[in-house]
Amino acid sequence: MPDQAKKDLDKIEDCVIYSREIIKKLMEFSRQSSMCKEEINLNRVIDNSITFLEARCIKEGIKIVRQYTENIIVSADPTQINQVITNLTINAIQAMKNGGKLIISTRKNSKNVILSIEDTGTGISSENISKTFMPFFTTKDVGEGTGLGLSVVYGIIQNHNGDIKVSSEPGKGTIFEICLPNICSNVHPNVYQGERT
Ligand SMILES: Nc1ncnc2c1ncn2[C@@H]1O[C@H](COP(=O)(O)OP(=O)(O)OP(=O)(O)O)[C@@H](O)[C@H]1O
Ligand SMILES: [Mg+2]
User: Fold this and answer.
1) Which numbered ligand comes closest to the C-alpha of 151?
2) Residue whose CA is closest, atom 31 of ligand 1?
3) Domain ranges, residue 44
4) Were both Cys, which of 28, 46, 87, 135 would link to 149 (CB 3.0–4.6 Å)?
């Protein structure tokens, strides 16, 4: 085969693989409408999700630190929450090329359950931080990122009536914090809790 034809075929193969990734992500994105909510133990879902990434973390010199609060129950689609944790964890791993620490913590207050995923990676510049949740925004090479991971995460959290925030310090690391409604809240919305005079 002529050299030029070989080069062209390689390019076509790369583009096809890249397109496959985009289609896969878009399908995940569009599947959000059919969600199947149930009461889930968040710590258990996190453990299941990161089991598949643990070997990769060890290989890449990344220490996983779990800081869980017991009994965190949320009403959510476990498959979608798994997707959220996986996407955020993969981003964190990709940001720690020279190893580091991945801290996953859960806590709750009367209104919300809070899940945070923190890394000690490259961080995100102030110029890029507002773009992180935008579809197709990526700083990664073709083949490593499509820029859809965080859009999928954002969509899933919105559909669960939650919220997601990012804070980052370039050179130090990044924290993604997710709030979901606390279904075990002691404060009943219809009960008057204020002071009576
Ligand atoms: N933990 C992180 N540390 C540093 N930068 C991050 C982190 N998470 C996201 N980013 C930045 O936000 C961009 C968008 O992330 P997003 O997950 O949406 O897409 P991606 O990782 O580039 O591609 P993919 O579609 O494969 O997830 C990344 O390219 C990266 O620049
Ligand atoms: Mg990603």
Assistant:
1) 1
2) 139
3) 3-181
4) 87
Q: What is the pTM of this model?
A: 0.86
With beta carbons less than 8 A apart as the criterion, state whether 132 and 95 touch.
Answer: no
81 part of a folded domain: yes
Q: Per the domain annotation, does 189 fall within a domain? A: no
What residues are paired with 163 via a beta bridge? 179
Residue 193 lies in a domain: no
Q: How far apart are CA 74 and CA 181, in angstroms?
A: 7
Q: Whose CA is nearest to atom 21 of ligand 1?
A: 145
The model's pLDDT over 73-128, given as tens digits with 9 standing for 90+, comes to 999 999 899 999 999 999 999 999 999 999 999 999 999 999 999 999 999 999 99
Handedness of CA 81, 103, 172, 122 (dihedral sign): negative
Residues with Cβ–ion distance below 5 A, ligand 2: 91, 149
Nearest atom of ligand 1 to the alpha carbon of 121? 3
C-alpha 102/C-alpha 108 separation (Å) is: 20
The total number of structural domains that make up the chain: 1
Closest ligand 1 atom number to CA of residue 25 = 25
Residue 136 is assigned to a structural domain of this protein: yes
